[in-house]
Amino acid sequence: MALVFHRAQLAVPVACMLILGCVLPLAVLVVFSVFEVDLDAFTLVPAFSGQSWVQMFTNPVFAFLIGKAVVSGAGTAMLAGFIGYPIAVSMTRLPVLWKGVGSIVLLTPLYTGEIVRIYAWRVVLGSEGLVNAALKWFGVIDEPLKFLLFSPFTTHLVLLYNNLPFMVLAIWISAELIDKRLIEAARDLGARPIDAFFKVILPLTTPGLAVGVFTVFALAAGDMMTPSLLGGTSGATPMAMIDNLFGTAFDWPLASALSLSLLVILFAFATGFVTILLRFDGARAVFRRGAL
Amino acid sequence: MAGSGISRREVLAGIAAGAASGMFGSLSSAKAAVSEMVWATWDSNGHPEYIAAFEAQTGVKVKLSYLSSEDAQFAALKTGTASDWDMINPSLNGSWRYIKAGLLEEIDMAKIPNAAKMYDVFKTTPKVLDASGKQFAVPYLWGLNPIVYRKDKFESEPDYTTLFNEKYKGQLAMRDYALESIAIAGLVAGVPRDKVFLMETKELAEAKKLLVAQKPLLRTYWQTIGDLTNLFATGEVSCAFSWRVPYDTLKDKLAMGMAKPKAGIMGWCDCFAMPATLSAEKSEIGYKFIDYLLGAEFATQIAKIGNYATTSSIIRDELSKEQQEAIFVDDMDVMKSFMWPVAPENYSEWLKIWNEVKAS
Question: Which domains are delineated in chain A?
Answer without folding.
Answer: 23-287 (1.10.3720.10)
